[in-house]
Amino acid sequence: MTDQPTYPPKPRPGDRIAIVSPGFAGPGAFPLPHELGLRRLREEYGLEPVEYPATRKLGATPAERAADLHAAFADPGVTAVMATLGGDDQITVVPHLDAELIRANPKPFFGYSDNTNLLDFLHRQGVVSYHGAAVMTQLGRPHAVHPLTDASLRAALFDGGAYELTEAADTSTVIGRWEDPATFAREPAAEPATGWHWHRPDRVVEGTSWGGNLEILHWMAAADRLRPAEQHAGGVLLLETSEELPGATEVFRMLRNLGERGLLRRFPAVLVARAMAWSFEHPHDATARARYRAEQRAAVLRALDAYAPDTMAVFDVDFGHTEPQLVLPYGGLIRVDGPARRITVTY
């Protein structure tokens, strides 16, 4: 881990962007959102997607997926890398990665969920990456890319510099099935967003971001993949949960384990994403969704009270498994201004 993280050079319209599946090869199972995402990359963002052998290969081995990543980062004609989707076994890919190759060829990488593994790996190499914006989910969103997602993604992809995050006025939870073409012809149903909830907003914290999907962080801890807690001192912790909808008790237990490692208290600020709160397996109505989110917020506060009582927290921030989704720098600078209730990231 280097002391000064590197922001890789930005792509420009007309450049080639690598499309990879480091986790689940979602395009092999659900081509409709993938093809839509590729078309938008070409027509709306001016980038030329380049796929690799395992991008659509269901059951690709960890070594095959690592080979795609090596090819993408080593290719001088590719200026950015984006994941198609998440998954649940990217932890098996990381041991195959060539750290020296990737350090020598830093490029902006975009992904979230299971890609927390790769985001952390890049952070270890001193390379800033981006938590958010997968091909099948944000770019393959029915009807159109959400305007807030679009604005933050364009800033992260092309602009750089400071970018103030905007609270969403509404949020979508229920998305149609990807195998149904009718899903993509209509705007997803939305409900009013409740805004950000601030806890101990009595200071300004500016630090390097780390974290990601809580379930994946829990697995990484079990596999002894986390760096020593003291290396995170002064940073901004990112926490979000997935469509598997872990219960409040489990969320607390996972955070308790991180607290027992001495990790939580190292972060003077934490951003907690709005919980997804709905899935086809758990089709919660609006009341149940609100209750699930409130219970998860209480679980996080319980863990912070026990292990990081002085930490400032912002809840229901629009990143991770949420719609809209804001892209956040991973390993880059985030400024959390409690008194002003503002969050500014550096892309």
Automatic annotation (TrEMBL):
Residue ranges occupied by any LD-carboxypeptidase N-terminal domain in the UniProt entry: 17-132
Chain ranges of the LD-carboxypeptidase C-terminal domain: 206-335
A Pfam family recorded for this sequence: Peptidase_S66C
Gene Ontology MF annotations: hydrolase activity
Keyword terms: Hydrolase
Protein name as it appears in the record: S66 peptidase family protein
Entry EC no(s): 3.4.-.-
Family, per entry: Belongs to the peptidase S66 family.
Superkingdom of origin organism: Bacteria
Species in which this protein is naturally found: Kitasatospora phosalacinea
